[in-house]
Design brief:
The protein has 283 residues and is an alpha+beta fold. The protein folds into two domains: 133 residues, Beta Polymerase, domain 2; 134 residues, Nucleotidyltransferases  domain 2 (Four Helix Bundle (Hemerythrin (Met), subunit A)). 44% of the residues lie in helices and 14% in strands. The protein has nine helices and six strands, in the order αββαβαβββαααααα. The protein has a six-stranded mixed β-sheet with strand order 3-4-5-2-1-6, covered by helices on one side. A hairpin with a 4-residue loop joins strand 4 and strand 5.
Length: 283
């Protein structure tokens, strides 16, 4: 596949350079059969590639194709890049971005970049690929406070949904909103313990190897099925884990942890958990 990607570029005068990004350039990423080819073609004319998408047939038999720039609203401007996201029947996948040469100044730095072809010497000597662009950054006091506030603010929404028996609503608030703040706090906690030198991966991808075994098991306890009681238990487990991680982070940076919010909301959650199903008043 890499030969096809490079030979396509060598044979097409519109393609002036090729760059590989992502896990295939990451010296610390495990190698497996699901790794994508994240490729950038630096081209003289993006529009000409969009006239007939069949030029990508050379890469293999497609299972499914997505053109995110075509389904976006509004569509990209005339001088914008264009992406072909291709899953092939043989298991290979290419995320191919066409980047216009006249916008090179807009190219964002990515430390996991490996220059494969440069016909015109556009890029010079790039540093070896590293994870430096993907390492977590220490939180500011404001970011820490916002994370804590959002976590404890949304927890009562979960409780309300569970008391009403609205499991899909409760699960959404728990797993999409509250969990996002928990994951953010765990990233900071991992950062504190590793001097922000370890990449925990997107969506907690590498949490299992970054967290102590006990914390990893506690994180797994925050996931539940669609049962009301199990979701209550997951909510309480999430609160306990968030509290533990947040206090570690706050102690390290000497931030103020909102103990009053934690105490009041936690008491409210326990109260709602014990409310009779036919209650007419909350307190």
């Amino acid at each position: 596949m890499l030969d096809i990607i490079l030979n396509t570029a060598r044979e097409d005068e519109r393609i002036r350079a090729v760059m590989l990004n992502g896990s295939r350039t990451n010296p610390h990423a495990p190698r497996d059969i699901f790794q994508d080819f994240d490729v950038i073609y630096f081209v003289t004319d993006v529009a000409s590639f969009r006239l007939d998408e069949h030029w990508i047939d050379r890469f293999g038999e497609r299972m499914i194709l997505q053109l995110p720039d075509d389904i976006g609203d509004p569509p990209p401007g005339k001088n914008a890049g264009f992406a072909y996201l291709m899953q092939f029947s043989d298991g290979n996948r290419i995320d191919l971005n066409l980047f216009p040469l006249d916008r090179l100044d807009d190219l964002e730095e990515d430390s996991l970049s490996l220059l494969l072809l440069d016909k015109d010497g556009l890029f010079g000597q790039l540093p070896p690929p590293s994870e430096s662009s993907y390492l977590p950054q220490p939180p500011t006091a404001r970011a820490f406070a916002a994370c804590c506030n959002e976590f404890w603010w949304v927890c009562p929404y979960v409780a309300k949904g569970l008391w009403r028996g609205e499991i899909t609503y409760a699960k959404f608030m728990l797993d999409q909103v509250v969990r996002a703040q928990l994951m953010k706090m765990l990233v900071w906690d991992i950062g504190v313990k590793t001097q922000f030198s370890v990449n925990p991966g997107i969506f907690g991808r590498h949490f299992e190897r970054c967290l102590e075994p006990q914390l990893w098991e506690r994180l797994l306890d925050t996931y539940s099925d669609a049962g009301i009681e199990n979701t209550w238990q997951a909510l309480f487990a999430m609160c306990e884990l968030f509290r533990s991680a947040a206090k570690q982070v706050s102690n390290h940076f000497e931030f103020d942890y909102p103990s009053d919010d934690d105490h009041m909301v936690s008491a409210h959650l326990r109260h709602v958990r014990d409310l009779p199903a036919d209650a007419k008043v909350m307190y």
